[in-house]
Amino acid sequence: MATKIDSYKKIAEFGKQLLYDASLDKALLLIADQARDLVEADRCTIFMYDKEADMLWTKIADGIGKIAISTTSGIAGDTFTKRKAQVVNDPYSDKRFLTSIDKKSGYETKNMITVPIFDSQRVVIGLFQLLNKNEGDFLDDDLRVLTFFANYISGTLELSFLIKDD
């Protein structure tokens, strides 16, 4: 298991790589891969917020097509609404968990961690949802590392959105 210092070093190296490509699609793929690696998870979904529709949609979702949910649905919606990261190590016993997504994809979620991504004005622009830690449950250390990572990459995402909107 990687130490916290090792995780932060990985994030710093990742930042150098991210600077070379400003396209949103490529940045999101790199971000998802890095997030998965940082906490040793099987899958990473990145939900982005669509303000006009008041929906969360996936640009990156391992193993499944596009997912769109309301900002009040599921654990992801709860993370968005509360603006607070969450660890859920037994999602099937959590009434907020959207079992329909597992049924549709054929994937079994054993545990998850969700972390909001804020812009420079502290508005939630999206969130990470990592599924199934490779060994054991997600821990508070995983939450801290992903929260740091979300803050680290938020400027890149915000800049990508601004460039896209021009």
Describe this entry's structure for a reader:
The protein has one domain: GAF domain (Beta-Lactamase), CATH 3.30.450. A hairpin with a 4-residue loop joins strand 1 and strand 2. Strands 3-2-1-6-5-4 form a 6-stranded antiparallel sheet, sandwiched between helices. The model has no long low-confidence stretch (mean pLDDT 86). With 166 residues, the protein is an alpha+beta fold. The longest helix has 26 residues.
Write the layout of secondary structure elements.
Blueprint: H1 4-18, H2 24-39, E1 41-50, E2 55-61, E3 68-70, H3 74-82, E4 86-88, H4 99-105, E5 112-118, E6 124-133, H5 140-165
Antiparallel strand pairs: 1-2, 1-6, 2-3, 4-5, 5-6
Helix pairs in contact: 1-2, 1-5, 2-5
Short recap of the structure:
The chain has 166 residues and is an alpha+beta fold. It is 44% helix and 24% strand.
Shape: globular
Low-confidence stretches: none
Q: What's the main sheet like?
A: 6 strands, antiparallel
How large is the radius of gyration? 15 Å
CATH T-level fold name: Beta-Lactamase
Strand order in the largest sheet: 3-2-1-6-5-4
Order of helices and strands: HHEEEHEHEEH
Which percent range fits the helix content? 40-55%
